[in-house]
Write a sequence for this structure.
């Protein structure tokens, strides 16, 4: 066979190119080899799951927090907010019920401390996702906090911070008020806290009546939201919001959990107003007229008189609208 033909056959069979490339590879340095390998290597996105094992691995590597669910009532419908909550404990100094640790001191630490705020921002975002209407966002926050169970600590006399109220799903008036004021502040509304004078307080609870007054500078607290003059509580500039249980915004009647005449007794008129944030006014006109009607109907019931059919229908309608506890 001719030599030229043999060379042509070898070239077409890629034998000679392979020999030439192997000679070239032997002559280049190790660093050059590494560069060529890296340049020819396909870039891998490690965040993209590849296969069942990789998907499982990525699931456990990514930080997952437990989901919290809280329900609320809006326009007579029971709905819920679901969000991821970081429930790991924070190594922070606590605030105890003492005459030195006033409600104002507690609120300044509970609302303005960055680690507390970071824990609660997912809840604020979850409320915002429910509706684009700012007024409805505020009313969702109010109903959500009111529906958190009221429970106090008898042995551990320390304040729960707002994120602990969410974590434990319980709190007393001052703690739940702190949580609600934080949420309304983050949603852009003007807020304040009503700190009621303990001299105007009455309770049959031995702990609250005899022990707590010597340990704490306040005995009841409510949240306040900025509103128009005609709906303000005692000319304070804010509408009063009871946080211990479901109640209509601007309803100033006493809470029924205290086992005194719930609709005959008003909130104390002696209070200290603690401004928290400046912001928008909340339109509470509908709630104000509903609250006045609800108080009227309950005052008749408390006097011992039987409600008329019309008044009973009003009572049931308002109780269902705001998720209030019915007393048949």
């Amino acid at each position: 066979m001719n030599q030229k033909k043999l060379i042509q056959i070898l070239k077409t069979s890629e034998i000679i190119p392979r020999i030439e490339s192997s000679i070239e590879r032997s002559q280049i340095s190790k660093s050059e080899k590494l560069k060529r390998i890296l340049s020819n290597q396909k870039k891998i996105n490690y965040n993209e799951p590849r296969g069942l094992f990789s998907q499982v691995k990525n699931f456990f590597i990514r930080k997952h927090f437990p989901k919290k669910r809280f329900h609320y009532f809006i326009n007579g419908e029971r709905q819920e907010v679901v969000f991821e909550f970081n429930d790991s404990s924070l190594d922070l100094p606590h605030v105890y019920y003492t005459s030195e640790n006033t409600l104002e001191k507690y609120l300044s630490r509970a609302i303005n401390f960055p680690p507390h705020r970071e824990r609660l921002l997912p809840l604020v975002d979850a409320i915002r996702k429910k509706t684009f209407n700012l007024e409805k966002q505020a009313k969702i926050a109010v109903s959500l906090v009111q529906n958190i169970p009221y429970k106090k600590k008898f042995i551990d006399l320390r304040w729960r911070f707002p994120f602990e109220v969410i974590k434990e799903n319980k709190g007393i008036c001052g703690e739940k008020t702190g949580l609600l004021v934080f949420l309304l502040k983050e949603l852009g509304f003007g807020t304040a806290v009503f700190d009621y004078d303990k001299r105007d307080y009455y309770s049959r609870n031995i702990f609250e009546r005899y022990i707590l007054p010597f340990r704490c500078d306040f005995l009841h607290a409510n949240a306040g939201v900025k509103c128009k003059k005609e709906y303000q509580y005692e000319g304070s500039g804010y509408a009063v919001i009871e946080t211990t249980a479901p109640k209509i915004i601007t309803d100033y009647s006493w809470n029924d959990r205290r086992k005194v005449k719930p609709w005959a007794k008003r909130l104390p008129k002696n209070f200290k107003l603690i401004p928290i944030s400046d912001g928008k006014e909340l339109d509470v006109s509908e709630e104000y007229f509903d609250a006045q009607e609800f108080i009227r109907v309950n005052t008749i019931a408390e006097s011992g008189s039987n409600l008329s059919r019309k008044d009973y229908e009003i009572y049931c309608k308002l109780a269902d609208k705001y998720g209030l506890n019915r007393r048949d």
About this structure: The chain is about 45% helix and 10% strand. Residues 41-50, 199-204, 256-264 have pLDDT under 50 and may be disordered. The two ends are 113 Å apart (CA to CA).
